[in-house]
Write a structure and sequence with these properties.
The chain has 14 helices and no strands. With about 450 residues, the chain is mainly α. Among the domains are: about 100 residues, no CATH class; about 160 residues. The protein is elongated and about 140 Å long. It comes from Streptomyces cremeus.
Length: about 450
């Protein structure tokens, strides 16, 4: 009997709680008639901890955080390099399709860099721009034409003598082979000559097609020369306007840097062409004089060939020197060929160690490794023309990239907050006591670029 009132009291309390909850539901239903009644679930105040025997489960990191930092950097750089390589490849394919126009324009740039200082001097003397441009262009083209005519004339004038001496040299080689310890017989020599004649006779069609292809090459060469002449004329007259129009194609944010890099790159190209012409003339004159005193036929045409091949760095000097030594060997014998080789090597050593550093100076500083790789790449991609333009292109890019790097660094320093506090005196660019501050001139960035240009170029 004593437990009955307690049980009844608990039941009453539960009924009272249920009544309160029903009243709350009715109040919510009256407030929002469209609401759907959701049964309430009693949620405990806290979640009980797992038992001690349960294994610990670590939280999984984000996928990006799970990749090592070095691998993420390599991946980010890789896809950008692939995109850049694809763009360069597409540009190369476009240039290959219009190879004649591209080489004509590059040649006009080289000739313009050579003739532009003359136009500037004539305009400084008071001549109008059109008259100065016309005089310089006509004089330059006439000189180039005379050089080409002189080479052809010398070759045609000495062709018969050279042919006779070559035949005599072949006959001397035949006698030497017959009397040599190699035991070569006259019958074997005749068989070799017969095989060569048969090979030439059976390949008449290929030789004819090669001749027709040579005619096509001559036509393309003349077309390229005309394009280069017209391009040179317009670049000499309106080069500044052409450069200003080119700057409009550059995004506005990069335009100030390109506007500063362009003139410096042009000065580098001008210094390269002028220095190469001077060095080539010195090589041609001294090697030509050596061949002349050694009584080698066609010494003057060989000197002109040495002058032209000097525009192909490293490789051109080797080829032209070897050609001169071969002519001396065939015509005058081993002793004269050895003397010609000594003359060629002596002049080239003086050129490489004295003339080029003194004439080109620091305006065109290209590492020999960059020269070899650029000449090889240019020759593989575009033959002799690619080998000629490879080194000046590398020199111009080196100057432009060095200036843009210094320009961006200078802009970053300007945008950075100035020093303050106790360390301001230690890092602020203030002159020493008793000295006058020297403001940076307009060529400070250029000098810094020339002095601190890193890389192999």
């Amino acid at each position: 009997m004593s437990k009955t009132p307690g049980w009844l009291g608990g039941l009453g309390a539960r009924l009272t709680h249920m009544g309160e909850r029903l009243e709350e539901r009715r109040a919510r239903a009256h407030a929002d008639p469209d609401a759907v009644a959701v049964p309430e679930v009693d949620v405990p105040d806290h979640v009980p901890p797992p038992p001690d025997y349960a294994p610990a489960v670590a939280a999984k990191p984000e996928p990006a955080a799970a990749v090592p930092w070095g691998l993420r950097v390599a991946a980010e750089a890789s896809w950008r390099i692939l995109v850049l390589a694809a763009v360069i490849w597409m540009l190369g394919q476009i240039i290959v399709q219009v190879q004649l126009v591209a080489f004509a324009f590059m040649g006009s740039l080289l000739v313009t860099a050579l003739l532009q200082p003359t136009v500037s001097r004539l305009r400084g003397l008071g001549l109008p721009r059109g008259l100065a441009t016309a005089f310089t262009a006509v004089l330059g083209f006439v000189i180039m034409g005379l050089i080409g005519w002189f080479v052809v004339w010398q070759i045609m004038d000495n062709a018969q003598e050279l042919t006779e001496k070559v035949q005599k040299g072949i006959e001397d080689l035949r006698h030497w082979l017959l009397n040599s310890p190699f035991h070569v017989t006259d019958k074997q020599i005749n068989e070799i000559s017969k095989n060569l004649s048969d090979a030439i006779g059976t390949n008449v069609q290929e030789i004819t097609s090669a001749g027709l292809q040579g005619v096509t090459v001559v036509v393309e060469l003349l077309t390229g020369m005309l394009l280069a002449m017209f391009s040179t004329l317009f670049l000499l007259y309106d080069g500044k306007k052409v450069w200003q129009w080119t700057l409009k194609l550059v995004p506005a944010q990069a335009r100030p840097g390109m506007a500063g890099a362009g003139p410096r790159a042009w000065r580098t190209l001008t210094a390269y062409v002028r220095g190469t012409v001077i060095v080539a003339m010195i090589d041609a004159i001294f090697i030509g004089l050596g061949l002349f005193f050694l009584d080698v036929p066609m010494a003057v045409p060989l000197a002109v060939v040495i002058f032209l091949f000097a525009f192909i760095p490293l490789v051109g000097a080797v080829i032209s020197g070897a050609l001169a030594c071969v002519v001396a060997l065939v015509v005058q014998g081993p002793f004269v060929a050895l003397m010609a080789l000594i003359v060629v090597l002596a002049v080239q050593q003086i050129e490489g160690h004295v003339l080029q550093p003194f004439i080109l100076g620091r305006a065109v500083r290209v590492h020999p490794l960059a020269v070899v790789l650029s000449v090889a790449a240019g020759g593989l991609m575009a033959g002799i023309g690619g080998a000629v333009v490879a080194v000046p292109l590398v020199a111009v890019l080196n100057t432009a990239v060095g200036y843009l790097r210094a320009y961006s660094k200078e802009n970053a320093l300007r945008a950075a907050p100035g020093p303050h506090g106790a360390t301001a005196h230690a890092v602020a660019p203030t002159p020493a006591p008793g000295s006058e501050p020297v403001p940076p001139g307009p060529g400070a960035t250029e000098d810094r670029t020339q002095d601190k240009g890193d890389g192999i170029a």
